């Protein structure tokens, strides 16, 4: 009987031991005495590369500076990049490669909302810490997953801010022009809810496709409705066409954009009409253009490290999230594990980076959306300015 019990119980004991060992290995995966491996995923090309490659460049310069100063608790930070091509299958594959092949300690990045949302289940299952820095869909961080945080302002925060901006500017006839894909709806749904809460009836509620080449019909409808403020839930290309065609018709309301359109230098060139942005404002989560003297040191680092790139506000997405990552890593201490890192990240309070417009506060375990302070950019006298 004893032999039989031993025979029956031994496999179970070995399985339990193996599971425990694997869990412990996962806690310290990607950590050695000298380095911490960090994975980043996002598009390297295409229109969304700004949120991927360019944001990753911002991460890289922060890690370079940290490493030049001796690392964190004696460990250098190693960034490993994977291209997800802004596609759902690409993001899932990139996450799997980073976590299971490259065996990174944590992830930072996530450029496109749709693709990052598709990878959420795999990230949550792996238990790998993830700091989101570009994608804005609330569904990536809601409901709360223990290991997923965002340092970017979310779509719902931006949508409410757009309505409040219109009201503060005295708008009486508000209109919306939106894309109705998954990205657009992640903004449109909370926007409509907030408008309803405010008792605001739109004078026009229009759609414009991402690949639109002409917005004259929409511009005519907006003008006929007498809209004095137009909220844009559009990518930069269709938004530029919307503003361009409205300007051709001498229709010049208050234009209210969101963070996807915060590179106003590039956007102004896309519109291609002098003075078209005189009443244009767009949300930003970052407080400076990289060329601003206030962050000259970071601007110099970006130019030195990536001389072939034009410096962009999207570099700041990476810079800010990397500083959040580094702060949590410092707080977690030398005896580093994933659990300790997540605990430190979840307890960040009023952390001020060199990039974000407002402080970072992570109210774990109930709220992992750590950035709730949108700012505003405008284009005045051929330069980017921050509005009060």
Automatic annotation (TrEMBL):
Residue intervals of the Leucine-binding protein domain: 35-373
Q: Which GO terms describe its biological process?
A: amino acid transport
Keywords assigned by UniProt? Answer: Amino-acid transport, Signal, Transport
Judging by the UniProt lineage, the source's domain of life is Bacteria
Q: Show the coiled coil region(s).
A: none
- Spell out the SUPFAM superfamilies in the cross-references: Periplasmic binding protein-like I
Signal peptide boundaries: 1-23
Give the family from UniProt: Belongs to the leucine-binding protein family.
Record-given protein name = Leucine-binding protein domain-containing protein
Species, as recorded: Xanthobacter tagetidis
Q: What is the lineage of its organism?
A: Bacteria, Pseudomonadati, Pseudomonadota, Alphaproteobacteria, Hyphomicrobiales
